[in-house]
TrEMBL record:
Cofactor: Fe cation
Organism field: Daphnia pulex
Main location: endoplasmic reticulum
Protein name as it appears in the record: Alkylglycerol monooxygenase
EC number: 1.14.16.5
Sequence ranges assigned to domain Alkylglycerol monooxygenase C-terminal in this UniProt record: 330-398
Amino acid sequence: MDFISEAFEGLGHLFYIVNPFQTSFRTTDEVPHYVSRASTWFFALIVIERIILRKKGKSPPINDGITSMACGLFMEINNIALRGATTAAYVYIYEYYHIYELPWDSLWTWVACALGMDLGYYWAHRATHEVNLFWSQHQVHHSSEEYNLTTALRQGVWQGYSTMFYYLPMAFFIPPSQFFVHSQFNLLFQFWIHTEVIDDLGPLEWILNTPSHHRVHHGSTRYCVDKNYAGVLIIWDRMFGTFEAERRDEPLVYGLIDQVDSFNPFYLEFFYLRKVFQKMQSMSGLTNKLKAIFYGPGWVPGSPKLGHYDQLPETIVREKFSHPLTPHDQIYAAIHFLLLSEGYRLLATHYEEFDDWLLYACCAYIIVSLVSIGLMFNRNPWFPWVEMVRCLVFLGYQLHFKLFAAETIGINLVMNGVRLFYLYSALQCKIECVHQFREKTQKEKMK
């Protein structure tokens, strides 16, 4: 059995490498290697998909893709700040309360963990659709009107804390090492199914969750709602009555039923919490108030727990809210997002070296920066003001503390280029701010 354990240990090492946003590393020395390789793999796959889609006459808007990846960074920044609280809970339960210690090097332990992890994911995922409070976080993942590999990265910040309880029972039996490997595998598997490039996988459609099955899950018309919750194995949906095959004769409409018109990742993360609170306030009686929180998003007094499915739209015809961007704006947003992604990579690599106040300040800066890009996509008039300030803050902080100072000429040249780009950005936004101020002054004079 030694060769089996070694094989699975190797698989665990592989899965650890390819997670795009993983921040829980076994040693500090492994961090740069894993992060850099992960970023390369996922970026390469996203670029390849876009090339294929362009050849097919499709061109996903860059604002939607960047917003999806920004939501992924939001989630991982939260993971850095809270230092792996959810994984710590699993380890704590196993160390102090496990009922039976399954041998970590047994093939059957790995199989049991794989099935338990996937079954736990099914019910956790289903809960995020059937409990209004949990849906307030999971709706982020469904808010994109596009369906491509970047959509896989669009995740809710707090979703992990509402779903962790579906995995913790495994801690009474399954060692943490197996759980961590299979949680990585489950996450990795679900990346590639977020695509329209792959049509049908033949007999595998009966067993595995595939792009076809998951496209149905992301659809917003009646036959798609609350279907196909699977992670890796579609057999759970077939067993528990939530499976629905893709209908080739009906075009899929992605996004929320009541679509949200925003590319601001902060707004997307939290706007639905306000809706839950407003729904609770509108209800009379404590029982109805609790149902507004813990029953389905479609529940109203007098309806079943999940609402009336027959009142959902069979077809949806709507214009996408994606605004066309000029080539300048696309390049501007792409460069700033890549710089922020690199900043996050450095933060994830060296966060243990930061004082707490500096760590949280850097996290806040990245969040504000991603919000600023979202404001640009929304054509929000506050964008140039926020953007000018954040660019000046970066320049002031970077020059004062000599951040990223390096002895090599190449890195110094790159950093000087980054400084110039931020200075250019600040000046461009200053011009727009002055233009807005003059327009406002003229309107006031005309009154």
